[in-house]
């Protein structure tokens, strides 16, 4: 019907706005005031709405949503889901503000074994593991803890491991303009472990190499030697 069609169009329009907002917040070249204003408009409190839908999900699964153990579950689940996807409300700009320093020498910076936790966008179940990040500084450097924060921002969203790996590499590349970036991620996907194929020990490895890590065999082999990751 026409009404349904309009609803769909409305939904798509909303999605596009949020997506554009996201892209805008994640890009690097905007004033603080611009970013703050847009962020406030994107960050409205959705908790009661998400809670309501979790209540529906429980009932539709055949549960008695009124039983004692489940009374506060929709609210808890809504809060948990907001926490697990809090990366949507954070930007690289927030993290790196005033944390970038000038250095004169070019050197390889490596942060190994960064724990990350994400949700697969196909099943909304967790995948998690370790990220290894390296960059070849070109004047700009950043505190090591900030690298872990960048991994966190992109992990705490609905993700596909390949996109996640690429987004982290691109964010570092844009922010630090280094001579090269390497990101390797190893993860276990609960959607593979707990359902369907049930491959308990299957570990998925993804990597993105940019700049000298891609072009210069010496840089790449130095990275592989230092991390043991290819
Ligand atoms: Zn999945």
From TrEMBL:
GO molecular function, one term: GTP cyclohydrolase I activity
InterPro entries per the UniProt record, alphabetical: GTP-CH-I_C/QueF, GTP-CH-I_N, GTP_CycHdrlase_I, GTP_CycHdrlase_I_CS, GTP_CycHdrlase_I_dom
Class in the EC hierarchy, top level: hydrolase
SUPFAM superfamilies, per the entry: Tetrahydrobiopterin biosynthesis enzymes-like (SSF55620)
Cellular component per GO, a single term: cytoplasm
Pathway(s) this gene product operates in, as recorded in its UniProt entry: Cofactor biosynthesis; 7,8-dihydroneopterin triphosphate biosynthesis; 7,8-dihydroneopterin triphosphate from GTP: step 1/1
Catalytic activity as recorded in UniProt: GTP + H2O = 7,8-dihydroneopterin 3'-triphosphate + formate + H(+)
GO biological process: tetrahydrobiopterin biosynthetic process; tetrahydrofolate biosynthetic process
Domain GTP cyclohydrolase I: 51-226
This protein's record includes keyword Hydrolase: yes
Keyword line: GTP-binding, Hydrolase, Nucleotide-binding, Tetrahydrobiopterin biosynthesis
EC number(s) from the headed UniProt entry: 3.5.4.16
Protein family per UniProt: Belongs to the GTP cyclohydrolase I family.
PANTHER family hit by this protein: GTP CYCLOHYDROLASE 1, GTP CYCLOHYDROLASE I
Protein name: GTP cyclohydrolase 1
């Amino acid at each position: 019907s026409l009404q349904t069609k309009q609803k769909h169009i409305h939904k798509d329009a909303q999605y596009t706005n949020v997506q554009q907002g996201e892209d805008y917040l994640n890009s690097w070249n905007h004033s603080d005031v611009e970013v703050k204003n847009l962020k406030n408009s994107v960050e409205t409190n959705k908790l009661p709405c998400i809670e309501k839908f979790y209540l529906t999900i429980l009932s539709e699964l055949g549960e008695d949503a009124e039983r004692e153990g489940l009374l506060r579950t929709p609210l808890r689940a809504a809060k948990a889901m907001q926490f697990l996807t809090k990366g949507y409300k954070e930007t690289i700009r927030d993290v790196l503000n005033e944390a970038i320093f000038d250095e004169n020498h070019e050197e390889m910076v490596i942060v190994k074994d960064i724990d990350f936790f994400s949700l697969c966008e196909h099943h909304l179940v967790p995948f998690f593991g370790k990220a290894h990040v390296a960059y070849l500084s070109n004047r700009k450097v950043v505190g090591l803890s900030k690298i872990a924060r960048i991994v966190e921002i992109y992990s705490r969203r609905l993700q596909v491991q390949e996109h996640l790996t690429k987004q982290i590499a691109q964010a570092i590349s844009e922010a630090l303009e280094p001579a090269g970036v390497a990101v390797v991620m190893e993860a276990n996907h609960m959607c593979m472990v707990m359902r369907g194929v049930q491959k308990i020990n299957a570990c998925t490895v993804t990597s993105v190499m940019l700049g000298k890590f891609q072009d210069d065999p010496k840089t790449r082999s130095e990275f592989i030697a230092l991390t043991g990751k290819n």
